[in-house]
Amino acid sequence: MPSLTLQLFGSPQIIYEQGWIDLRSAKACALLYYLAVTQRAHSRLALAGLLWPDKSDVDARTNLRQAIHHLHLAIPACLFATRDSVSLNRQLNVVVDVLRFDELATLGLRSQSSEPSHNALRSAVSLYQGEFLAGFFVDAAEPFEEWVWARRERLNGMVGEALRQLVERSLARGDTFEGQHYAQQLVSLEPLNEAAHYQLMQLLAMHGQTQAALTQYARYTALLADELDTQPGGELAQLAHDIRLGLSAPPMLAVPTQNIATAAASTLPTKTPPHHNLSAPLSSFVGRGREITALEQMLTTPGERLVTLLGPGGVGKTRLAVEIGHRLLPLFVDGVWFFDLLTVGDETMVAQSVVGTMGIHETGKQPLIDRLIAYLVDRQTLLLIDNCEHVLGGVARLIETLLRAAPRLTIVTTSREPLNIPGERCFTVAPLALPDKTSDVAVQALLAPESAQLFVQRASSHATPLQPTEDNARHIAQICRMLDGIPLAIELAAAHARSLSLAQIVHQLEDVPGAYFQLTSRGPRNAHERHQTLYRSIDWSYKLLSAKDRRLFARLAVFAGSWSLEAVQRVCGDFDGAAHDEPSILEQLTGLVDKSLVIAEPNGDEMRYHFLETIQRFAQDKLAQSGDEDALRDGHLRYLVDFMTRW
C-alpha cells in the first residue's frame, strides 16, 4: 500500500514512498494539507471558496480541477474525487504529524499523571518542530489563511499545556533534569511567559548553572524592554538577586504570583477569539453533584458527541448546561459556545442565529453554513444549544450536519423533547431531591436535600437569613414537596419570603384558590417572560402541542394520582361515547412523555403515568375551562366501578 507522510510542524514537507515531493504549486499544497488535516470529504464548492474566494464560481472550480490534476500527477491516486466532492484516498497510508500529536496530547492531558500519560506527552512534544505550516503562505486565500491561523493557535496552546504538564509531572517524579529540559522548551515556545522563566532559572540554579540562570534573566529583561517597554516582576527580580548572592533556591519550585509580561501583553491587540461566551452566574449553583459527575463522564467518553438534557420547564436544564460548560472549559481547547434559541421563531433561522452568535460572517461565495463548518471542522469545541423544543426540526438538521462534518465537535442541547437523530444520548434532568414526608425526621435531615438547600439560600437572599428551627424546617420541606422540587418554582416562591412567613407561604399554596401560580411568579426582570412565572413556563410547552394533544393533556387532570394506559384509553378516549382509538391514545400519551409534560415510571409489568404537582394544577385549570370536566368525572367513576368489579 503506498504511503504518504506529511510533516506539517515547522516548514512543511511531503514524503511519498520514501521520496521528497516538491509540488511547486502553493494552492495544490494547501489543498493537500487541508484534506489531510480535516480527514473528511469536502464539497468542490467549499474547496473552491476556501482557496479562490475572489474568483467567480466557474473560475474557482476550474482552478480547483487544475490543482487536483497537479496532485494526481505528483502523487498518483492520492485523492478520491467525485463530481461533487474531494477527499484523500482512504486506501493510501497517510501519516500526518499534527494528527498524531493531537491524539497523543489529548490522551496525555485528559489522563491522570500516570506513566502512560506521561509517555504520551513526551511523544507528543517530540513531534513539535515549529509552528504549524511555518513559513507557508497562499496568496489571495484568506479563508485558508484563517483556518491555518486558528489551527496554529490551537496547536500552540496544546504544546504549551503539554510542556507545562511535563515540567510539573517531571518535578513531581523527582526528575529535575527532565523538568529543566521541558522548561527550556516552554520558554522557547512562550518567550513572554514569566512563570516559565522563573521555573527555568530555579532549575538552572539548582543544578549549579548559576551563570546560565542569570543569562536567562538578562535575555528575558531585554525582551521585555524591546517588546513591551517594561521590566520583570518583583518576584523574578528577587530570584535573580538571590542567585547572584549564591543563596539556595527554594526547595519547591514556586512560580511568581505576578506575571508582568502576561499582564502587559494582555493590553495589546490580539486576534485570539474568546475561549467561551458563558456568562458568569449571578447566584450560587446548588446540588446536582450526581448529574454533573455523570455528564462529565459521558462528555469525555470517546464517541459521545451529542447529549440532550431533557426535562419540563423550570427544572434547571439551562443552568446545568452552563455549569457543565464552565467545568469542561479546560478540555475543549478551542472554546465553549452557548446559544439561546428562545427568541428564534423560525426553524430556518437556527443556523443564522448560531453563526451570528459566533461572529462568523459570509465571505465571498461561500454559504454561511459552509463557513460555520470550516470554522469548526478541526476544532475541539463544545456547543451548548439551549431551548430547542420550538424549533426542533431546524436544530436537528443543523446538528446532524455539523457532527458529520466536524469530528472533534461535541454538542449539548436542552429541550423538553428529544431531537431523535443518530448518536443522541438523552439525559433526563429530574427535579431536585425532596425532604422526607415522615414526621419524625430531624431538622438537619429535612434541610439536607437539594430542594431545601435551594429554598433556604434564595429566601435568605431576599430577607433575613432563615433560622434552622424545627417549624421552619417543616414548612420548608412542605413548600418544596408542593413545588415538586422544581428549581424555578422554588426560586419564585422563595422571593416571597420578604413579605410572607413560611407558614403563610404554605397556606397560600395549599388553601387559597389561584394563589399557587401567583406565588410562583414575579421572577427576575432580566429573565424572559416565560421564565418569570411558573405558569408561563408550563404554558410554553402547552402551546407547542397540537389541539388534539391539548385535549388529552387537559383530560388527564381527571386522575388525582397516577394512572395506567388502560385507564387513559377507557376514560379519556371515549368519555363522550365515541369509539376510542387505542393506538392513537398510546401515541399521544407517549408524545406527552417525550415533551416532559407527563412522567412514565415502571410498576411491575406495566407503566404508570403521572403529572408533577405543578403541571397537574395547570392541567386542572385547562380541564375546568374545557367544559368536559363533569362528563370526564362521570366516566372516571364508571371505570373505577368496573375495575373494582373485575378485581
Strand order of the largest sheet: 9-10-11-8-12
Residue share in helix = 40-55%
Alpha-beta content class: alpha/beta
Range of strand content = 5-15%
Please tell me the overall pLDDT.
82
Q: Tell me about the biggest sheet?
A: 5 strands, parallel
Strand count: 14
In the CATH hierarchy, the architecture of the largest domain is: Orthogonal Bundle
CATH class of the largest domain: Mainly Alpha
The CATH topology of the largest domain is given as: Arc Repressor Mutant, subunit A
Number of helices: 28
Label the overall shape: globular
User: Assembly state here?
Assistant: single chain
Poorly predicted regions are 264-274, 523-532
Count of domains:
4
Kindly, what is the distance between the CA atoms of the first and last residues, rounded to a whole number of angstroms?
A: 74 Å
- Using the CA coordinates, give the radius of gyration: 31 Å
CATH superfamily of the largest domain: Winged helix-like DNA-binding domain superfamily/Winged helix DNA-binding domain
Structural description of this entry:
This protein is an alpha/beta fold. Helices cover 52% and strands 9% of the residues. The protein has 4 domains: 1-190, Arc Repressor Mutant, subunit A, CATH 1.10.10; 289-428, P-loop containing nucleotide triphosphate hydrolases (Rossmann fold); 443-534; 545-646, Winged helix-like DNA-binding domain superfamily/Winged helix DNA-binding domain (Arc Repressor Mutant, subunit A, Orthogonal Bundle). It is built from 28 helices and 14 strands. It has a 5-stranded parallel sheet with strand order 9-10-11-8-12, sandwiched between helices. It is globular, with a radius of gyration of 31 Å.
